[in-house]
């Protein structure tokens, strides 16, 4: 059955990541420049967190919503750190996991992106959109 296929079949491996020591403004630029909604946070190659575009919007558009990009970046970098904003120790799936495992974790935890790891090293990400594309092929 197709849902027992390895998650590697549908996960993205061309990842955009941010390192845990980088400024928060880099995240804003990543979300602004690409069609990306979740950014894994790494230390070296090890997954240490994840941040969604919604997480960033929550901290950047309250009282700061009327600033231009440069001013907003300065405020974000002065006020926040990646470590303080990211979801630490995110739920992840081992590279040996199945598509069914990924679907169960996404549904159970009610989020839309699941990092895929190999012994703690980030190797991919699977999203709810990846799962919908997979199901559309059935």
From TrEMBL:
Residue span(s) of domain CBS: 11-69, 86-138
Name assigned to this protein: Inosine 5'-monophosphate dehydrogenase
UniProt keywords, alphabetically: CBS domain
PANTHER family noted in UniProt: CBS DOMAIN-CONTAINING PROTEIN (PTHR43080:SF2), CBS DOMAIN-CONTAINING PROTEIN CBSX3, MITOCHONDRIAL (PTHR43080)
A Pfam family matched in the record: CBS
The keyword Repeat belongs to this UniProt entry's keyword annotation: no
SUPFAM superfamilies listed in its UniProt record: CBS-domain pair
